[in-house]
Design goal:
Number of strands of chain B: 25
Number of helices of chain A: 7
Strand content of chain B: 5-15%
Helix content of chain A: 25-40%
Radius of gyration of chain A: 21 Å
Distance between the termini of chain B: 64 Å
Helix content of chain B: 40-55%
Shape of chain A: globular
Structural class of chain A: alpha/beta
Low-confidence stretches of chain A: 236-269, 279-297, 300-326
Number of strands of chain A: 8
Number of helices of chain B: 34
Oligomer: heterodimer
Largest sheet of chain B: 8 strands, mixed
Largest interface: A-B, 30 and 29 residues
Strand order of the largest sheet of chain B: 3-2-1-4-5-6-7-8
Shape of chain B: globular
């Protein structure tokens, strides 16, 4: 077996879905931007044997094998193969694993792998849901939304609201500190965003700006502020009286304590993170790059899916770099 | 000069000002809402670095009032979107804009000098012909108009709304000496037709009509309560629905109105009268103390009543402490309940020789005499006074109607015995040899005007069904409904069962009505003038059949109901449904298939069967779905799932609209269906709609197949329900119900987009209904609703 190494990596900043900075930027466009940048950082312009992109909702703007379109938009020759894969939140991670395995097994030398998602353009569950009636009747859990699976995890492992809020505060603090200290500057590739709109005088306008740093981190959030948020996914069972509209009080998971980056219902994100994986022997001296802290090479791991209800307890690929917790 | 009101301005954005502006917006009239310019910045404004010159600051008072409208309960707006029609401004910068409006309504502080100075400014700006009115409740209209230009004087009058302006029917119109008759006529018609109000012309006297008599009555009640030793709770228990008055009776009403408002209104009369009358209008000491303590009623959390730990407590006027509220229960109340109709009940109660009778007589006797004394002074005739009290205070009978109910001669005798003089007006009635203030001749109503009987004026748009039936009879009738000839080729099917609930009798009449109309009429209106249009199918009957396991009978009943609805839908003559008030379950199912819906502005429509563990069984699921589809463009591939999901949510959540406009937003009504602002005009408007449809060559609709979402649609709806269950929003039984509903709405396990005949969907509905009705939990829910009047979530 050969060794696979990660040579370079890049990512867009994470934007908030719907109203954030990347809401109007097509995922294939910002995907191409990052692929190009990853190649530049790797200092490599040679042939790419595969372009593997993970995407959780590969339809509409993310449809038609978005990996292939990203390749085209990034200026890769049309002979570059590309494949889009889907394992929901761990799609990106999975694509890197597949890339490494292909290299280790010898069927490729240089692969670009990563993940792309625009939840602004393609919402969770997709634009048109056509579930299977048999599954829906006998095992609806296969279609259970993330929020609900999180509630199941919390119940099964006894993670209280207070625990979650405390964790969330620490997470936001660490993220805010990291941003302030500029820890993410090197991995991020800024995206030029042009907002197009019609103003009050009915004139077409364009406003451009550089989107440079992650959105959505709540600087200065405290347990007190999180405590005020209504829980979004689980309530104590039907209270007295007929409440015709969902009363979302007294529940545990909220928007504030959901996973930082990978969308929790409405704190949804757009981002793109490709890595360039290479065989160890063809890699140059890349060991000192912060995004390639892996001097030990890539270790494969097992992917298991926990019982469908408990998404989030996956023992995923052991991977030295973790920047997203699915 | 033909007047029209295309734009209006309301000056003063308090509770009444903003409420009036909201009501104008409800009927589509753009309103400018102006208030004074603030003299100081708020902390928030300072924080934002704003100054007293910024527009946002200068308009702050009106802007804030407008935003408050969205949170008020009961809602002053019939639809949230109506808010856009109200524009905030202020009385300095925007005075010029008054040039562009057709009606200016002044609703500022009740101070004559302040009002007069405002009018002076308006006089300088307004264009000739603009109508300007005041909502004052107590200041003299003539005094306010003093010193104004001639055109102003011609177009100035009082328009006194009642709180809340959207819901209370009374509009008192008070002409000044200078007001042109055409203007009074126009405002009266506008008030009735466009604002939906009951207009009463009042004379320029303190507190006009309703507040004059109403306040007198309240103060007399207070006086008698104290002198005869009744408690507050006891008084309220006998001065409410027992005597045909609203549930809030006496003291709860006062708490809602606010003691400060009440004292102000009372003081108004006190300051402008003298002698014995004036004495009545002096508020008792304990009330003054209450105001000092800030116990103003609902707005301050306590007043005559206080809610403490879920218990309602009443004030003890002697000690000013609260104690658990009491009630008065005496034999005369039981006897009254046996009587039919308010008149007989009143007769029984008022002469009863127990605590109830004593109190009621002691309150009514002076109130009736006072009304008679003021007749002619505060209003032109007794009809105006009776209407004012009915429409402004929610009394079922006005003072003179009450007097007739308890017998004029008998009561006058009793009054004389107690040492009271008979009012001159009443004496004239008795001297003329007549017995009652009102009398009916040949089905028409007449009133005594002091010398003779005059016909009670009838507006052609107001059809009083009770009177109409007496005069014209019915074509056919059974226990549930009657078919009436409304003239001009239109017939009316009137429900009159209990709560107008639909049983086999009504279904029979529906079949008969459609057959009859197809043969002999141009169109059919389904409407009535009960408390509510129809609260659904006869739940009691269904429960009994279910408990007896009478599946065959139940199946027959549902089939009959469905067939009756289909008959309405495919009638070759137009059927117009005229819903109002509660139009729930079966009530909505009757309206949906009609060729046209003419709804009252206050229509509370929804398919609420889920609340009793059922799903609509009369075609409601299908018809609501179809109504959504009708709005779609032809030949375009639209995702049916969004529609099915919307309908599913509406039925599963038992969504009920809080206005006809909201019913339209919920897709029970479409753009072609009509809304009547004046509920008295509803049947007339429905009749006109039926006639118009006929004249336009109405044909029965073609029977078309309906595309359904099929198996994937069923799965999608099911997942939606599972999600709600996982979240704990619905119970396990709710989920079972939702599954059945999902199956019905998606058309079962067919491929997506399959087109099916209506009968297939009706059969699915019936199957689901029958299976649910056999379930113990559904039966429990039905029972709970019947017994307790509230839904059960088991």
């Amino acid at each position: 077996m050969r060794e696979a190494v990660i040579v370079a990596g890049a990512r867009t900043p994470v934007g908030k879905a719907k109203k954030g900075s990347l809401a109007t930027v097509r995922p294939d466009d910002f995907g191409a931007l990052v692929v190009r940048e990853a190649m530049n950082r790797a200092g490599y312009d040679g042939p790419i044997d595969d372009l593997i992109m993970g995407c959780a909702m590969p339809e509409a703007e993310q449809g038609m094998n978005i990996a292939r379109n990203i390749g085209a938009l990034a200026g890769l020759p049309d002979t570059t193969p590309a494949v889009t894969i889907n394992r929901f939140c761990s799609s990106g991670l999975q694509s890197i694993a597949y890339a490494a395995e292909r290299i280790m097994v010898g069927s490729a030398e240089a692969i670009i792998a990563g993940g792309v998602e625009s939840m602004s353009m393609v919402p969770m569950m997709g634009n048109v849901l056509r579930p299977n009636a048999k599954l829906a009747e006998t095992a609806p859990q296969y279609y259970m939304s993330m929020g609900h699976t999180a509630e199941q995890v919390a119940t099964q492992y006894g993670v209280s609201r207070a625990d979650q809020d405390a964790f969330a505060v620490r997470s936001h603090e660490k993220a805010a500190a990291a941003i302030e200290k500029g820890h993410f500057v090197e991995e991020i590739v800024p995206v030029e965003v042009t907002k197009r709109f019609v103003d009050e005088n009915n004139k077409y306008q364009e406003k451009s700006f550089m989107f440079e740093m992650d959105e959505g981190v709540r600087h200065g959030t405290t347990v007190q502020t999180l405590d005020k948020l209504r829980a979004a996914f689980f309530c104590t069972r039907h209270r007295n009286g007929w409440e015709l509209f969902p009363n979302i009080r007294r529940c545990r998971r909220t928007f504030g304590n959901g996973p930082r980056k990978s969308g929790i219902f409405r704190i949804e994100t757009d981002c793109e993170i490709p890595f360039l994986c290479n065989r160890r022997c063809t890699a140059g001296s890349h060991g000192d790059r912060p995004s390639c802290r892996d001097s030990k090479g890539f270790e494969t791991g097992r992917t298991i899916h926990r019982r469908y209800r408990c998404m989030g307890i996956k023992r995923s690929i052991r991977f030295p770099i973790t920047w997203c917790n699915p | 000069m033909a007047y029209q009101i295309k734009k209006a301005a309301v000056l003063g954005s308090g509770v009444m000002g903003s409420g009036i502006a909201a009501h104008l917006a409800n009927i589509g009239i753009p309103v400018l809402l102006l208030d004074i310019v603030p003299r100081e910045l708020t902390e928030a404004e300072q924080g934002k670095g704003l100054s007293l010159e910024d527009k946002a600051v200068r308009n702050r008072i009106a802007s804030t009032s407008i935003q408050k409208l969205l949170k008020q309960k009961p809602a002053p707006l019939t639809a949230k979107k109506n808010l856009q029609l109200i524009t905030p401004g202020n009385l300095e910068d925007d005075l010029e804009k008054l040039k562009d409006v057709d009606w200016i309504i002044e609703v500022i502080v009740e101070n004559l000098d302040v009002k007069k100075s405002l009018y002076e400014k308006i006089d300088a700006v307004r264009k000739p012909g603009t109508i300007i009115t005041s909502n004052t409740s107590g200041i003299s209209i003539n005094a306010m108009a003093e010193g104004r230009s001639e055109d102003f004087g011609k177009h100035f009058l009082g328009t006194h709304f009642f709180n809340p302006p959207r819901y209370l029917k009374l509009l008192e119109v008070i002409p000044a000496n200078t007001t042109a008759p055409e203007v009074v006529e126009f405002m009266t018609k506008f008030g009735e037709d466009r604002l939906g109000k009951g207009v009463v012309i009042a004379k320029d006297t303190p507190n006009f009509i309703a507040n004059r008599i109403g306040t007198y009555g309240l103060l007399v009640t207070l006086r008698e309560m104290q002198s005869r030793g009744y408690s507050i709770g006891e008084v309220d228990s006998v001065t409410g629905p027992l005597i045909g008055r609203p549930k809030s009776a006496t003291f709860r009403t006062l708490d809602v109105v606010g003691l400060d408002t009440f004292m102000h209104v009372a003081k108004n009369v006190y300051d402008q009268t003298s002698g014995d009358e004036q004495k009545v209008f002096e508020a008792p000491e304990f009330m003054k103390k209450m105001v000092e303590n800030g116990w103003l009623g609902a707005k301050s959390g306590q007043g005559f009543f206080l809610k403490k730990d879920k218990e309602i407590q009443e004030l003890d006027p002697e000690t000013l402490e609260y104690r658990p509220a009491g009630k008065l229960k005496t034999p005369s109340q039981e006897m009254a309940k046996q009587q039919k109709g308010l008149s007989s009940k009143m007769k029984t109660l008022v002469y009863a020789e127990d605590r109830t009778g004593e109190l009621l007589w002691s309150i009514l006797s002076p109130t009736l005499r006072y009304s008679a004394e003021l007749n002619g002074e505060i209003a032109d005739d007794i009809v105006a006074i009776d209407n004012a009290m009915k429409w402004g205070f929610g009394w079922q009978q006005g003072p003179f109607e009450t007097w007739d109910a308890i017998g004029v001669q008998k009561s006058v005798e009793k009054m004389k015995q107690e040492g009271h003089d008979t009012p001159a007006f009443v004496q004239r009635l008795l001297d003329s040899g007549n017995e009652s203030f009102y009398k009916e001749e040949n089905g028409d109503l007449y009133f005594f005007d002091g010398t003779d009987y005059k016909p009670v004026p009838v507006n052609e748009k107001v059809i009083d069904l009770k009177r109409y039936k007496k005069k014209h009879g019915v074509i056919k009738s059974n226990s549930g409904a009657s078919l009436i000839d409304l003239g001009d080729g239109i017939a009316l099917l009137e429900f009159h069962s209990r709560s107008n609930a639909i049983g086999l009798d009504i279904m029979q009449m529906i079949n008969f009505a459609v057959d009859e109309v197809e043969k002999n009429f141009k169109g059919l209106v389904i409407g009535n003038q009960g408390k509510n249009f129809c609260v659904g199918a006869n739940l009691g009957m269904i429960l009994m059949e279910a408990q007896d396991d009478n599946i065959f009978e139940l199946d027959f009943t549902i089939k009959t109901f469905q067939n009756a609805m289909m008959k309405i839908k495919y009638s070759s003559k137009p059927v117009v449904a005229a819903p109002f008030g509660m139009s729930l379950g079966g009530g909505a199912e009757v309206a949906l298939p009609a060729a046209h819906i003419q709804a009252s502005m206050e229509t509370y429509m929804g398919l609420v069967e889920a609340g009793v563990g059922l799903i609509p069984g009369g075609g409601g699921n299908k018809e609501l779905y179809i109504k959504h589809l009708k709005g779609l463009p032809n030949g375009i591939n639209v995702d049916l799932q969004n529609i099915a999901s919307n309908v599913f949510e509406s039925i599963a959540m038992a969504k009920v609209s809080t206005s006809a406009e909201e019913a339209r937003e919920n897709n029970f009504l479409n753009f072609v269906d009509g809304i009547s602002v004046n509920s008295d005009h509803l049947i007339y408007d429905a009749k006109q709609a039926a006639l118009a449809l006929y004249e336009n060559g109405y044909q029965a609709p073609l029977r078309e197949k309906i595309p359904v979402t099929g198996e994937p649609g069923y799965a999608t709806l099911l997942l939606g329900a599972e999600g709600m269950f996982s979240s704990g929003y619905i119970s396990e039984y709710d989920l079972k119900l939702a599954k059945k509903l999902a199956f019905v709405l998606s058309g079962g396990k067919l491929p997506y987009g399959t087109k099916v005949d209506e009968q297939y969907l009706l059969d699915l509905e019936r199957e689901a209904f029958l299976s649910l009705v056999a379930e113990p939990k559904t039966q429990q829910r039905m029972q709970h609703m019947l017994v307790k009047g509230k839904p059960l979530r088991n």
